[in-house]
Amino acid sequence: MDVGCITNNLPSIAHPPKHGTKEDKEDEPLVFDASLPRHEHNLPKQFIWPDEEKPCLNPPELVVPLVDLRGFLSGDPVAAMEASGLMSEACRKHGFFLVVNHGIDSRLISHAHRFMDDFFELPLSQKQRAQRKKGEHCGYASSFPGRFSSKLPWKETLSFQFSADKHSKNLVKDYLCEKMGHEFEQFGMVYQEYCEAMSNLSLVIMELLGMSLGVGRTCFREFFDNNNSIMRLNYYPPCQKPDLTLGTGPHCDPTSLTILHQDKVGGLQVYVDNEWHSITPNFNAFVVNIGDTFMALSNGRYKSCLHRAVVNNQKTRKSLAFFLCPRDDKVVTPPSELVDHVSPRIYPDFTWPMFLEFTQKHYRADMNTLDQFTNWVQRNKS
């Protein structure tokens, strides 16, 4: 792809469209071509984060519980109690834990990582066939310059919707083939299968979370049974100034539950006890964290924690993120067992599409997203 001439003294990693006057170009969002920045030492100011948010060197490692699912999956009640207890402890403190012996085929995980290269190593013009449109959450996004004018993340993503409804059996595959062509059919089949595996795993985790909160195994599993979730492929190219930018800025996930698989490069950091901590990659484990929607569902008992991703100057980092979300018509309201005079209602009733619209059109996700959304809902009601 011809990147054209560069204006505004911007380096070639971020460039405006090729046509129009200088004034027109200054009003246009930048285009981030991730194939070019590997050797670029000058970062556009839009990618440079404020000093108080820049990555720290050698953060301490976060000690997160390793939850072994083998016993629970085999029906061992003692193992189930132990697993739910570990989750409860983590979720009351920071909302992060690892799961191992989860039953997901290791070959499927490897394929899901390998097939990312088939997409992200394409020329920019071909990836843009799946371009994410303004106000939407699915499609290809290259650093989100169309949404934000500062603090841009150093990454590319490909997001698509998954439905556990039996009438939407091939939603992922059909979407990817529609956007990228039928030569991406195998690509689509891999992520269709991966999403189905993540959906099943999330329901297992929801059983244990239900046990840990004293509302029973079926409460949350049934709530998310026909989930309407989001899958995201994250691709963080090397950056020659990793101390100035971030792959993903500090935020809490607005979704219910995130199941993340990191490659071996690492870069996930979590903010706990007023300090950033790293979570070391473990290819045999999934990193699980509570999102804002489940924090509301638990009436604030379980925490949605601030986290971010950093980049490095040597290697591309890849991660697979499955964001569990309830079906569109489900009302997010805590079970009656979690509401009493000691723990009154904290958040209003809402549906996931309401919250998603808020984060896409009205508010950039950060540590205050759920509180800001609560205020927004109350203002609209009044």
Question: How are the SSEs ordered, and which strands pair?
Answer:
Blueprint (H helix, E strand, L loop, with lengths): L13 E2 L6 H6 L3 E2 L33 E3 L1 H4 L3 H17 L2 E5 L5 H15 L3 H4 L11 E4 L13 E8 L7 H10 L4 H28 L5 H6 L4 E9 L11 E4 L5 E6 L5 E5 L2 E4 L7 E5 L1 H6 L9 E3 L7 E8 L6 E2 L17 E2 H11 L6 H13 L1
Parallel strand pairs: 3-4
Antiparallel strand pairs: 1-2, 4-12, 5-6, 6-7, 7-14, 8-13, 9-12, 9-14, 10-11, 10-13, 15-16
Helix pairs in contact: 3-7, 4-7, 6-7
Brief rundown of the structure:
By secondary structure, the chain is an alpha+beta fold. It has 11 helices and 16 strands. It has a single domain, classed as Sandwich (Jelly Rolls), CATH 2.60.120.330.
Task: Characterise the protein shown here.
The protein is of the alpha+beta class. The chain has a single domain (56-381), classed as B-lactam Antibiotic, Isopenicillin N Synthase, Chain (Jelly Rolls, Sandwich). Helix content is 31%, strand content 19%. The chain is built from 11 helices and 16 strands. The protein has helices at residues 22-27, 70-73, 77-93, 106-120, 124-127, 171-180, 185-212, 218-223, 292-297, 352-362, 369-381; strands spanning 14-15, 31-32, 66-68, 96-100, 139-142, 156-163, 228-236, 248-251, 257-262, 268-272, 275-278, 286-290, 307-309, 317-324, 331-332, 350-351. The strands form 4 sheets. It has an 8-stranded mixed sheet with strand order 3-4-12-9-14-7-6-5. Strands 8-13-10-11 form a 4-stranded antiparallel sheet, with no helix packed on it. The chain has a two-stranded antiparallel ribbon with strand order 1-2. Strand 10 and strand 11 form a beta hairpin. Helix 4 (106-120) crosses helix 7 (185-212). The longest helix has 28 residues, at 185-212. It is globular, with a radius of gyration of 21 Å. The N and C termini lie far apart (51 Å). Mean pLDDT is 88; it is low at 1-28. Pfam families: 2OG-FeII_Oxy, DIOX_N.
